[in-house]
Amino acid sequence: MYTILDDAARRAQGYLRSLAERPVAPDATAAAALRQLDEPLPAASSDPAESLALLDRVVSPATLAMAGPRFFGFVIGGSLPGALAANWLAGAWDQNAALYASVPGVSHIELVALRWLVDLFDLPAGTGGGFVTGATVANFTALAAARNGVLGRLGWNVEAQGLFGAPPITVITGEEAHPTLLKSLGMLGLGRARILRVPVDDQGRMRADGLPAIRGPTILCLQAGNLNTGSFDPFGDLIPRAHAAGAWVHVDGAFGLWAKAAPALRHLVEGVEKADSWATDAHKWLNVPYDSGLAFVRDAHTLKAAMAITAEYLPTETSERNPCDFTPELSRRARGVEVWMALRSLGRAGLAEMFERNCRQARRFAENLRAAGFEILNDVVLNQVLVSFGSADRTREVIARIQSDGTCWCGGTVWQGKTAMRISVCSWATTDQDVERSLAAMVRAAAV
Ligand SMILES: Cc1ncc(COP(=O)(O)O)c(C=O)c1O
Questions:
Q1: How far does residue 139's CA lie from ligand 1's centre (Å)?
Q2: CA 381 to ligand 1 center in whole angstroms
Q3: pTM of the predicted model as reported, rounded to 2 decimal places
Q4: Strand (E) positions, 253-393?
Q5: What residue ranges in 366-434 does DSSP mark as E strands?
Q6: 118 and 343 in contact (C-beta within 8 Å)?
Q7: Mean pLDDT to the nearest integer, 205-229
Q8: Ligand 1 pocket at CB < 6 A
């Protein structure tokens, strides 16, 4: 009965091994073959091994090789083989990672991973955290605590009273805040249109001289790692000023917060640990499988007050940490298991090596493309590179050619009015040879 798992493991290994050489983007034939799946829901049962073979035959070729070594689109990251293996084992356990009393194993391992992360990011002792689906929900979770925290200081209980008649909260973000942060604020009833947006500089960093005077309940949202440039808001300047005026400071560090874990990058996030809450992703730069994000709140009680539930049928009574007290979900998979595996197997040295290598590789892309005559639009401080191949049309044409060549994959963007190609280096699997091969493909595509 369980031999199908061997079959899946064999197919998964075959797929992963193929990534080094197959074209990164699926071709039109693979997309057309997906029509084979358009069948009516079968009336009778069948051998799942046959469906697994169908999946592998038809869907594997139609995947974008995001897990491969030459995928530089969006901000993605692959899956460390160890993290994927932990994901499989945790899948077999099929634990509902909600309550310590029923699932002590995964509850405890999440606690261990959280302790390590708080230490790795230099966050204050006592910081609370939750394992969520990604940075969007991590922002949502931490900002729910922020909203309740700033109103709680005025004696307003959001959990009980909601926002009806509550004192208005001022929310401040940079012009370059990620759209998912704005979405989170909207979902929390804080409104997307009433946010005060602070101007940014040419790297997308919030301009400290543009911070408005802070009065009353206020949440200031800063960013560690701009999606386009990789830049960081000036934490050292802004956080103390915001705190002096009584504001709550939240940091969206979807990938940039990991700079804390690398000695050569740590200066970029100096002072970030002084904030009140933080959001980051594990499925990006930590290279664990989707979906995996992390929310942290300095005052664990405020996070717990915003997220905890009780019900007669649930065994919530425990002196241990109930995972569901810190996340929007009650039932969820034990995604902390892969995080634990990635942290434990890489260790501090392996984490630093991966982050620093990816940043060095990003600089190599920039230097080489600049030397080939193309314009690099950002200061490459982290793992993101913006390159223009000339006019907007010309740049879009080169991106399309790179994508169809299949050696590597990069997407486009418009940075402060200029069309550019984004190179985002976040995979454990990317070697220096992959960078050289990709550079040659880019230069070839741009020479036509
Ligand atoms: C700065 C920033 N915040 C939030 C997000 C959203 O992350 P996710 O898609 O994992 O929810 C991203 C995604 O790239 C990001 O770069």
A1: 9
A2: 18
A3: 0.98
A4: 277-281, 293-297, 375-376, 384-388
A5: 375-376, 384-388, 411-415, 418-424
A6: no
A7: 98
A8: 75, 134-136, 178, 180, 223, 225, 227, 252, 254, 281, 293
